[in-house]
């Protein structure tokens, strides 16, 4: 029963992921993109949950869905994209098919590589993926990346501010 | 306590400097010069702290209780630290005039600069793919912003956009590779991975190779190896001079730091990455880069194209590692240094001259330069000679080591191609020399610019001197350190790796 | 004593550095340059005096480590082969400075000083990497001089000579690197010293390929037929002092390289290339001479003439017997003197009339008899008239060729005719006939110019009248080299 | 457990490929950005799957860091897009070719 | 025995040349230096002649096979190529030494008068002395290399002297031609020497050593050597096919022509063959070839001479013709007869040229004989001496030419080479005809110049220095023959005896010889008669003949040989040169290189065009790389596992 539920949930989420992806890939209007993005990220979060990654699920929901998607949405609204400003894409299908052919080896390789690495999920304890265990790990193995990541975020923030700031007063064209 | 923390000191100094700059950048009244010198002081301080550490360690995990095995202090990393710090300071000082003429560079610029260097340093020290990735991202993000720093300049925007899109795109490959490594071995610590591969390597050859190559793809992208080079010309052109120079010289060093570490520890003995694929890429890079460089009229683009070629040379040596070339890795380090010195000279002069004009410089702009600015022309000529690998410059020795490595590893065709490409490069480098020296000055532009005694110009001159000194060596002046010593140092650094 | 070569090589560069540092005035500059040239000449004569022709191997050797990792050394040395060329360089430089005496362009002088260091270094270097360094570096001042101070498409021609020569030397570089590696493979230690590489037991196929690299470099430098299209271009564009260096010295370095390194290192496989080299140099000798006939530019004409003679020298080297080798070595020196003379005088014509086109000239002999005398003298010595050194050399090469095979000898003897094809017609149209408008105010040789040319004339005469004064300096070592070559070549078959 | 890890990998691979396709085949800068985000999320999915597979929380931790990186990149991307749109009023990536064409900038 | 005198003899003229050349070039003009030039320019040859006489006098006291050696220094010594600068006077070179110095001195003296007004007086004497020195070097050399040096220097000197009037390009062209053709000969000569050296087994390369070692070389090779050496002689002695320079060489001042034709240059070939007598004696076939060439040249030249109008050209062709005789002689192995004819010819040919020069000077550089005429009464001295010379060359008895020429012809007959003999007789007839044609037209026939040049030419009076050497030479032309009076005429062929050369022996009975000689004289008289009929008693007024018939025109234009050379050699060479200049170098060599470069740059430009700034393209190329690598992995590793 649970298995069926899990399977169907997985199918649903997988469908969500792909739908979101395809919406981004194929749609033309920014609103659809945002929607697709939202669906995709949320579905990924759901998949995290299915994988017993509870902390990751929350993080995804909070940061990605709650943060990134929202900010993206705000951005779309802020710049108030006009339909006319959207690029014309006359040969989209052709490009799509061409690109699909080109990336086929990569996808194939990726899939082939990944599928050799495990047959079935082993059972895990309930605490797997929880905040406590992850926190312990983070303070044991992840201090350095964490520190660097903090600097990274700071940098990105500073950078985003610098880039996003309105025109400065010094307007020397060069 | 002090001794255990010492390896952190340079890194810490840099990050402190970055914060200091961020803080004071809010103060409007501080002059740009102060930012510049504060940055340089921090860099030099860090340099001074790092310098005595060289030659003291090999494979020491710093504060293992806190950081686990992720942060490694060894001579290898220290040497690269020194190159980043010195290179960063040089880049800034040489561009001092350029920066001075443009008031939109402020504290944040220098803070980002320091962030980038911080990222590079942690990259060099990282013994774990995850911090390595994050450091790389940190450096990249800082440089994305630096690239687009001059927002009112459309080219700058465009450059940043391209770099950002393609850079993140390429960055995904790194983390994908890391993920696969993790999937195979359950760890991302490089030394543990190496140990794992020693034992189980053959079972998961495809996965491991895929992971290794995906990581390499990101590195190759940043180096600008063909076919991952396409961003390079536009980004170099669109970036402000100090940033271009930084990317061409220091960033490349950083990437080879991680590439070498991965290669020497992870790939070489385990045969994860076929040398032939790197060789093949080296061939593509050499040919493609020379094609790009030869067909440019703008100097910055030419230098960008040529920097692709120089990346190709280093790939030659990279592909020779493990094939019996006893100096392949030191050759790369020597080449990095030689390329750094010569390209810093070249970019520095470009930026010095471009400081006044607002146009992208072309070959034509250098017509008759030797009359207007004899000293600068001489320095430029020396840089060009060195870049083309003309003997009696440090560039020749760099190429010499590279070719020797290729020959030692039995890749004769590759060495031959490298030599041929060096021949082709003579054309586009000497074209500039010809422009400078062959034309009499036209009347209206004939006035001689006096040689401005400034830290920028003096450093460019110093670079020129080092270029010559490095090429000629020391046999005429006994007891004076020779360029040969650099190889010994590099060898020692390589030796400090497990 | 072993330092003397170092001084000879680097004294001009040192002077260039010091003079350049103080940005001296023209008068000081030229005095300094002349001083350096005279000092080098004095040192060179000192080495000649100290030189022991009977001794085997190199003399005045200076051998210091340079690049430890690959066993590259700073290795200078001298044997009679290099001594001859060194002597020529040292002799010519003061004369060239005399030629340039009133030229106020300081860049000219610095380039010449550096050029001297370059060519001298290439002659004396015995470590292959060091040799390559000098071989390539000497190109730079030439490049600048042609491009900056030359004329007639000089920019393109500077690029042409640069690219041709660099192409060749790059091929050589590859071979050099491989040789060093092979040395390491065989003996376990690195060395790029010439004599170490010479005793490598390379397998024939590899050696053949490597020899091709060397030969390409030298074929371009000499230039042999087919590799020569840069020659006339560069000669036509080069300013006179650079031109003299090009023809009198740099081209000889191609020969020198072929001789010392081609024959020294690849003795075993060179017989494979012998037919090609023989054909190229033989046909080239005539080809260039015929090409010279219709040239209207004096520089181009004598460029081809130079080519013809260099082919002859190369031929002598390829013939590989005592007479031919002695003749080639002798011709290296005498042709250097003669071509220096002729090119200097062409430069004088250019200074006086602003043209070196033959059809714009004519009748110089009527206005300037001294000039005509010297010009005729040099032209004739290029044609190899007896009494000048060129005759002796050509005779020796011809005899050497006959010692190999009668037909070869007869073919070589056509060199007697080669120069005739154009020299006399040229003389007729430049010196003789009614004076052309351009030479109406042609000034005869001034005292400085006479002083500049007289040593060349005297030397050519002495070398022609009493070659026995000079041959003992080099014959024993040439014989020794020949024995070594035959021994090495014989070891293969 | 009925859902095979391969299924997760398949989803991740597909998502990754969709991301790449988005970058290449579309001219809309916004789509490009979103596609890159999708790629990174695909990698995250892979990491989470591996983590579950081993089972070992190292992968989870990496994915966590990745979320940070994704956020940082997103910030930068958005800033750039805003900036660019403000300047040029277009999101057409093909409109940014001035550097390559060597125009006077 | 050895003596330093021969060296001194050789060096003296060179010294004179050097001194005069230096003074000419470096002492400022304007000062009157002529006396100095005269002193040095005449002094050195006279001194040389004097020393020569002393040496020869000394020589005659020695046995015939002895020689006086005069080594100076070692010229070169490499391997077995040991050449000394050493001179030797033996009987053969003694004759040459005397001829060269004596006749040469006379010509020098003559030249003082001839050149007195010339701007380049000093230069002329410098060249002249140089010429003499070169010839002495050639003659006295003790080894073929030194001989060759002299041989070449003679060519050089002739170049300088023929082109002496260098304002006129035609003169220079003539000088070029002379040197070029000589050089072609020299090419053969040096090839012969090279081959000889390569083949010989003993060391040492002086004549004595060479002749001693000839036995070691097989005959075929010896023949080749002999032929090659003779090619040199063809050039120097103006024989078919290398003769065309000779008539043009008249462009120089007349004393130069005299020197070239009489005493020095052209005789070198004959001398060389005689010098190499031991070699040629081994290869009679080549000797016959030489004789054949000589005969052919003699005939051809005589034919040409009969149709020429230029006084100097007539004499030039006559020289060529006489040289043919000499070569017949040396070719057939009668060396001493050849040398004797050489000596005699030196006297009368020098006389002829100097006489012609006097006429030319007197007529203000007029050379067409048909514009002269009737000069006999105005220039009696010249006329008389010229008559002597003409008779001598025609071979009228008691004159030197009779004995010398008839000796050659009789020998040819006696040795069975009747064809050559017959040609010789025809040539003798033609010689008589054209020489007297010249004599009659210039001196005897009335002044038949057309009305436009009617004005009585004011003849320049000849300086004494130009006249009295004529008499000396005339005396020589008359009496020289008695030195070698054949036995048939009661003599003892003293000259041939003393010469002591390796002659072949062939004797005729006296009666036969009388008949032959008589026949010869008859033939000569016939020639004179025809000339007399045609030019002294002409049926119509004498004018420059206009040749209407093709063969006449052809002969007057010397069979278009010059044109032939031009078409066959000069133009093709220029054509090739042009072709190299326009096609091979720029198109084929540079063109293919440029093609490669263009290709490379083209590819480069195309590939740089991929750098189109388009972000998607960039991503695509990136992805192509990734895909490629993936494919590689799939195939290389994935397929394997």
Short description:
The complex is a heteropentamer of chains A (174), B (498), C (493), D (105) and E (641). With 498 residues, chain B is mostly helical. Chain B has helices at residues 2-5, 8-24, 32-50, 64-67, 75-94, 96-100, 107-125, 129-147, 154-185, 190-200, 205-223, 230-238, 241-267, 275-294, 299-320, 328-354, 369-372, 374-388, 394-408, 412-438, 455-472, 484-495; strands at 60-61, 72-73.
Distance between the termini of chain A: 68 Å
Radius of gyration of chain A: 21 Å
- Largest sheet report of chain A: none
Helical content band of chain B? over 70%
Task: Describe the 3D structure.
The complex is a heteropentamer of chains A (174), B (498), C (493), D (105) and E (641). Chain A is mainly α and 174 residues long. Among the domains of chain A are: 83 residues, no CATH class; 34 residues. Chain A has six helices and no strands. The radius of gyration of chain A is 21 Å and the shape is globular. By secondary structure, chain B is mostly helical. Chain B folds into two domains: 273 residues, no CATH class; 222 residues, no CATH class. Chain B has a two-stranded antiparallel ribbon. The longest helix of chain B is centred in the middle third of the chain and has 32 residues. Chain C has a domain of 221 residues. The radius of gyration of chain C is 21 Å and the shape is globular. The two termini of chain C are 41 Å apart. The mean pLDDT of chain C is 89. Chain E has four domains: 142 residues, no CATH class; 400 residues, no CATH class; 52 residues; 27 residues. In chain E, a hairpin with a 2-residue loop joins strand 1 and strand 2. Chain E is 71% helix and 3% strand. Chain E contains 24 helices and two strands. Chain E is globular and about 120 Å long. In chain E, helix 3 runs antiparallel to helix 4 and helix 14 packs across helix 17. A two-stranded antiparallel sheet of chain E has the order 1-2. Chains A and D meet through helix 1, helix 2, helix 3, helix 4 and helix 5 of A and helix 1, helix 2 and helix 3 of D.
Keywords:
heteropentamer; A: about 170 residues; mainly alpha; about 0% strand; C: about 500 residues; two-stranded antiparallel sheet; about 75% helix
How are the SSEs placed, and which strands pair?
The complex is a heteropentamer of chains A (174), B (498), C (493), D (105) and E (641).
Chain C: H1 4-21, H2 26-50, E1 59-67, E2 72-78, H3 80-100, H4 106-124, H5 128-137, H6 139-149, H7 154-187, H8 194-198, H9 204-221, H10 229-237, H11 240-265, H12 270-293, H13 298-319, H14 322-353, H15 364-367, H16 369-383, H17 389-404, H18 406-413, H19 415-418, H20 420-430, H21 447-465, H22 471-492
Antiparallel strand pairs in C: 1-2
Helix pairs in contact in C: 1-2, 1-4, 2-3, 2-4, 3-4, 3-11, 3-14, 3-21, 4-5, 4-6, 4-11, 5-7, 6-7, 7-9, 7-10, 9-11, 10-13, 11-13, 11-14, 12-13, 12-20, 13-14, 13-17, 14-16, 14-17, 14-21, 14-22, 16-20, 17-18, 17-21
Chain D: H1 5-25, H2 29-53, H3 58-88
Chain E: H1 5-26, H2 34-60, E1 68-78, E2 81-89, H3 91-115, H4 121-140, H5 144-162, H6 169-199, H7 207-213, H8 219-236, H9 245-248, H10 254-263, H11 267-275, H12 277-282, H13 284-306, H14 311-331, H15 335-362, H16 380-394, H17 400-414, H18 418-444, H19 464-479, H20 494-499, H21 510-536, H22 550-556, H23 561-609, H24 615-638
Antiparallel strand pairs in E: 1-2
